[in-house]
Design brief:
With 112 residues, this protein is mainly α. It is built from 5 helices and no strands.
Length: 112
């Protein structure tokens, strides 16, 4: 019985990975592919794509959108909360926190 459960989990994991890949590629190629295959229509309707264009951000963040979609589908809001809680597991000494939160933004602002 344990082998059957392990194989079910393995199939379920493969299905989730496949779903993640399908969502990622659908978003990315839906946006970028539209500009490749219908450049005149897309440019006329939505404007020239550039690094500041919202569609560029959508295509760039497609893997994150897909990951949140899969986690939300499987675990609901509690699953998303558990997924995001991993962001707070940084174990750094206080000087590194100061460097990350103060020095890096100051260097960025000084460059602009």
């Amino acid at each position: 019985m344990a082998v059957l459960l392990a194989s079910q989990e393995k199939r379920f994991g493969s299905a989730l990975l496949f779903g993640f890949l399908v969502i990622t590629f659908a978003i990315t190629w839906g946006v970028i592919g539209s500009y490749i295959f219908w450049p005149d229509a897309m440019t006329a309707r939505f404007g020239e794509i550039s690094g500041a264009h919202p569609f560029f951000f959508l295509a760039t963040w497609a893997p994150a959108i897909a990951a949140f979609s899969v986690v939300l589908y499987i675990g609901g809001l509690k699953g998303v909360a558990a997924f995001l809680s991993r962001l707070l597991l940084w174990r750094l000494p206080a000087p590194w926190w100061g460097f990350i939160l103060i020095v890096i933004p100051l260097v960025y602002m000084a460059g602009h």
